[in-house]
Amino acid sequence: MDRKAKATGLPRLSINIERYPATTRVLHWLIAALVLLTWPLGMVIKFVKNEVSLDFYLVHESLGFLVLWLMLLRVGNRLLTPKPEDNGPRIERIAAASVHGLFYVFLIIMPVSGFLATNAHGFPFTWFGVLPIWSPVGKAPEIAPVLSAIHLATAWILLVLFVLHIGAVLMHHVIRRDFTLYRIL
Fold first, then answer.
1. Which pLDDT does position 1 carry in this prediction?
2. How far is CA 49 from CA 38, 56, 61, in A?
3. Smallest Cα–Cα separation from 57: which of 113, 127, 107?
4. Radius of gyration of the chain (CA)
5. pTM for this one?
6. Interatomic CA distance for residues 12 and 4, integer angstroms
7. 58-79 pLDDT tens trace
8. Are 5 and 12 in contact, with CB atoms under 8 Å apart?
9. CA-to-CA distance for 64 and 167, rounded, in angstroms?
10. CA quadruple 5, 10, 16, 22: dihedral positive or negative?
11. Cβ within 8 Å of residue 47, ≥6 positions away
């Protein structure tokens, strides 16, 4: 019996939870934090003063571009590392796989469409104001609104996916009180 168990007089419970690999967990939380910073930043740009709006765009676009590269790493990580075995009813496993798959797709579409829209609107992109990034699209006013619309639609789709994801987390952690959340912590 360890010291804490002796002090309380209760046996220490040990539960073995199969977790995601460390690389997956780090990428998950890093990308989540960046998205939770980048998404609202992009939504408030139209409300800030013109004098600072370019600074907001620079930070928003630079963080979004970082999300793109981290998502590409995450895809590679997903292909190369095993994940814990899924438990639960088949319909829940399908729903979880669908939401996660859509997250991957839209977290790549969103920064790509934003990057291309920026260039199509005639603003070359310089990552964090330091590194100029080449774009296959130059100033192209005819496609800029389409790319911007894709970027905006993707933002709202990601919000819906986020709400579904958080709902599932709460269901598992608060209602069922299972160990699903601990797999990604």
1. 47
2. 18, 10, 18
3. 127
4. 21
5. 0.88
6. 8
7. 999 999 999 999 999 999 999 9
8. yes
9. 25
10. negative
11. none
Would you say how long the chain is, in residues?
A: 185
Cβ distance 113 to 94 under 8 Å?
Answer: no
Amino acid identity, position 182: Y
Amino acid at 67: V
* Cα four-point dihedral sign 168, 175, 184, 83: negative
Determine contact, residues 119/137, Cβ cutoff 8 Å: yes
Bridge partners, residue 125, by sequence: 133
| pLDDT attached to residue 24 | 97
For the chain, how far is it from start to end, CA to CA, in angstroms? 27
Q: List the beta bridge partners of residue 126.
A: 132
Three-state DSSP string of the chain: CCHHHHHHCCCCCCCCCCCCCHHHHHHHHHHHHHHHHHHHHHHHHHHCCHHHHHHHHHHHHHHHHHHHHHHHHHHHHHHHCCCCCCCCCHHHHHHHHHHHHHHHHHHHHHHHHHHHHHHHCCCCEEECCCEEECCCCCCCCCCHHHHHHHHHHHHHHHHHHHHHHHHHHHHHHHHHCCCCHHHCC
